[in-house]
């Protein structure tokens, strides 16, 4: 049962890989061939060059938004988590409760207001001081990145990790006259690197796979991420399955490699709280 | 773990050494500003938008008209003959419930079974876990397109399999007819003309979405069950084995009851995920040859409440205010589920 199940689960990946080498005629045969009768690697070249703005460009857009978004989330999350774990300030517990409470807010309710907010950010995209007249951040990288930049889950997870670091490290750092930021950067972050990697990986994968939000807030081909591009690449080549599989493979393989390299971190993160960006 | 768990004196001592006053606020300011602007404020802003007829911007203040449309016409409406009919919202909710019922119990039972097997020291265990979990990380539009080909009516490998084992081939993603009727048809009972489609379970197209969702979320469920299994003390199994309990009895009397909190957590977690699913439905249902080629087809038979929200927001003119009202309905459903989930997570932590 376990082995049979694994075969079924792995089958779509295998089918994608085999299909990516089939010609359009062969991919439409019924019943289908298992191995390609004639290997047709040209699909990859075509998948790379044919979309309106070339697949390479879309992949770059995805990589850019995912990396900047994840790095920003990590930076913002680390600072907040450190303060919530180690600093004492007025209203700390209340504010942490507020952060936790935002996890109860589902994405759907933020969709429309955030779309409107993005269009009305003042002084960008032709907007005046009050955020009118232009399109604000609509149709920009910032529009894709900003709303998901601060996640409650990373803050929560990093805070938990920071709390497990023994107090002696801080005391020793204080004897050396280290500041808060110096302690955070030189001691705490290296000590908690596994958790940081976990948060980064989950953030990256969530952003790489995102479809709905980037679809809503972008229009220009030159900035759209690859998952959005895949949907109309699909519309334009409905039955050229070989070509579609080659494109799908190119889009999926970075994630597969990342997962194979850092599987343990993924699983730790998922066990700790689910795949939330 | 928690700083409050320390005795008061140690806690005070520890905290006194830290910067006090407003310094710490600076650290949390970026996160808080973003969370307030893009998470908290939207709840109120969404309410405001839902009171308007709104397109790119506000057009008319309409008060509760959008909610009337949502809760009155959305539930009961009149068809072209003047008879009573199911409204759009109720229709979407029913589709969503079919989607949840088709996905969640199957995923959980499969994951439970597989997790108990993967928990044993079988050869290749690591590789098996890797494979099962892989679909969870590759959950974008790209991989869903593979399913569009596999379930293609003309060139799909699934139809080839059906033909090979003597089953009638299906039109899958192009078929708005309930799968139940396709089954009764196949066994010679006809398509049950007396039974309205909407009460006959998920459409054949939705079944494909359900299969995709099970495939893609199975690994996550297995991982969570495996984490739960490691928390069960080994002595319990030993004691049961000494008492002569069979493997099946142990599974039913020990493993399943002890993993109940995990199961309950997964139940809610999967339900929420299914309610929110967008990518597979958008990717797999636009290409349908029946209908307008919008997500949710064919003939709206995969139009879950989230896709219905998207349709009104993105594909209909002047409907943004109404979509915001739909978002509120969804918000309260999710909030209810999330509150239950938080309680369960709390309980789950206590068990460990």
From TrEMBL, chain B:
<dbReference type="Pfam" id="PF00528">
    <property type="entry name" value="BPD_transp_1"/>
</dbReference>
<feature type="transmembrane region" description="Helical">
    <location>
        <begin position="21"/>
        <end position="44"/>
    </location>
</feature>
<feature type="transmembrane region" description="Helical">
    <location>
        <begin position="320"/>
        <end position="340"/>
    </location>
</feature>
<feature type="domain" description="ABC transmembrane type-1">
    <location>
        <begin position="93"/>
        <end position="341"/>
    </location>
</feature>
<feature type="transmembrane region" description="Helical">
    <location>
        <begin position="97"/>
        <end position="119"/>
    </location>
</feature>
<dbReference type="InterPro" id="IPR000515">
    <property type="entry name" value="MetI-like"/>
</dbReference>
<dbReference type="GO" id="GO:0055085">
    <property type="term" value="P:transmembrane transport"/>
</dbReference>
<dbReference type="GO" id="GO:0005886">
    <property type="term" value="C:plasma membrane"/>
</dbReference>
<feature type="transmembrane region" description="Helical">
    <location>
        <begin position="254"/>
        <end position="272"/>
    </location>
</feature>
<keyword id="KW-0813">Transport</keyword>
<protein>
    <submittedName>
        <fullName>N-Acetyl-D-glucosamine ABC transport system, permease protein 1</fullName>
    </submittedName>
</protein>
<keyword id="KW-1003">Cell membrane</keyword>
<keyword id="KW-0472">Membrane</keyword>
<feature type="transmembrane region" description="Helical">
    <location>
        <begin position="205"/>
        <end position="233"/>
    </location>
</feature>
<dbReference type="InterPro" id="IPR051393">
    <property type="entry name" value="ABC_transporter_permease"/>
</dbReference>
<comment type="similarity">
    <text>Belongs to the binding-protein-dependent transport system permease family.</text>
</comment>
<keyword id="KW-0812">Transmembrane</keyword>
<dbReference type="InterPro" id="IPR035906">
    <property type="entry name" value="MetI-like_sf"/>
</dbReference>
<feature type="transmembrane region" description="Helical">
    <location>
        <begin position="131"/>
        <end position="151"/>
    </location>
</feature>
<keyword id="KW-1133">Transmembrane helix</keyword>
């Amino acid at each position: 049962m376990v082995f049979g199940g694994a075969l079924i689960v792995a089958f779509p990946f295998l089918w994608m890989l085999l299909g990516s080498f089939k010609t359009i005629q062969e991919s439409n045969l019924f019943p289908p061939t298992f191995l390609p009768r004639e290997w047709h690697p040209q699909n990859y070249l075509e998948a790379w060059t044919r979309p309106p703005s070339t697949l390479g460009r879309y992949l770059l857009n995805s990589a850019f938004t995912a990396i900047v978004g994840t790095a920003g989330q990590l930076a913002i999350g680390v600072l907040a988590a450190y303060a919530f774990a180690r600093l004492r300030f007025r209203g700390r517990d209340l504010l942490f409760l507020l952060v936790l409470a935002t996890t109860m807010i589902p994405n759907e309710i933020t969709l429309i207001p955030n779309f409107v907010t993005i269009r009305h950010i003042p002084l960008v995209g032709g907007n005046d001081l009050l955020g009118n007249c232009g399109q604000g951040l609509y149709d920009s990288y910032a529009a894709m990145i900003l709303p998901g930049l601060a996640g409650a889950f990373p803050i929560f997870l990093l805070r938990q990790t920071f709390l497990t670091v023994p107090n002696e490290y801080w005391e020793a750092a204080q004897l050396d006259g280290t500041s808060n930021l110096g302690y955070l950067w030189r001691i705490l972050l290296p000590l908690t690197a596994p958790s940081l990697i976990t948060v980064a990986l989950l953030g990256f994968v969530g952003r790489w796979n995102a479809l709905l939000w980037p679809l809503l807030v972008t229009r220009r081909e030159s900035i759209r991420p690859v998952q959005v591009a895949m949907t109309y690449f699909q519309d334009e080549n409905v039955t050229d399955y070989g070509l579609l599989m080659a494109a799908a493979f190119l889009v999926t393989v970075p994630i597969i490699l990342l997962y194979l390299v850092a599987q343990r971190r993924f699983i730790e993160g998922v066990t700790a709280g689910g795949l939330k960006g | 773990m928690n700083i409050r768990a320390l005795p008061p004196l140690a806690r005070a001592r520890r905290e006194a050494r830290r910067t006090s006053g407003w310094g710490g606020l600076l650290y949390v300011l970026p996160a808080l500003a973003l969370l307030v602007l893009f998470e908290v404020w939207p709840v109120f802003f969404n309410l405001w938008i839902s009171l308007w007829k709104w397109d790119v911007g506000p057009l008319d203040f309409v008060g509760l008209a959008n909610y009337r449309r949502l809760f009155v016409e959305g539930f009961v409406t009149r068809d072209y003959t003047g008879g009573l009919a199911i409204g759009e919202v109720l229709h979407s909710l029913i589709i969503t419930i079919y989607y949840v019922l088709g996905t969640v119990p199957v995923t959980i039972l499969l994951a439970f079974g597989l997790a108990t097997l993967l928990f044993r020291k079988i050869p290749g265990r690591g590789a098996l876990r890797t494979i099962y979990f892989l679909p969870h990380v590759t959950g974008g539009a790209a991989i869903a397109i593979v399913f569009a080909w596999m379930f293609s009516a003309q060139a799909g490998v699934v139809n080839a399999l059906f033909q090979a084992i003597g089953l009638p081939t299906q039109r899958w993603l192009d078929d708005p007819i309930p799968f139940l009727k396709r089954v009764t048809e196949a066994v010679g009972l006809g398509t049950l003309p007396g039974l309205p489609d909407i009460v006959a379970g998920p459409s054949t197209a939705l079944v494909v979405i359900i299969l995709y969702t099970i495939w893609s979320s199975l690994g996550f469920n297995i991982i969570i069950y495996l984490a739960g299994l490691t928390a069960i003390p080994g002595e319990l199994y030993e004691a049961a084995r000494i008492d002569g309990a069979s493997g099946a009895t142990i599974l039913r009397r020990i493993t399943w009851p002890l993993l109940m909190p995990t199961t309950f957590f997964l139940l809610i977690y999967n339900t929420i995920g299914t309610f929110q699913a967008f990518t597979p439905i958008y990717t797999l249902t636009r290409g349908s040859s029946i209908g307008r080629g919008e997500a949710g087809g064919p003939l709206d038979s995969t139009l879950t409440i989230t896709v219905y929200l998207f349709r009104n927001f993105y594909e209909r003119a002047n409907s943004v205010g109404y979509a915001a009202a739909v978002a509120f309905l969804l918000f309260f459903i999710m909030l209810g589920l999330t509150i239950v989930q938080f309680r369960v997570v709390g309980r789950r932590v206590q068990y460990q």
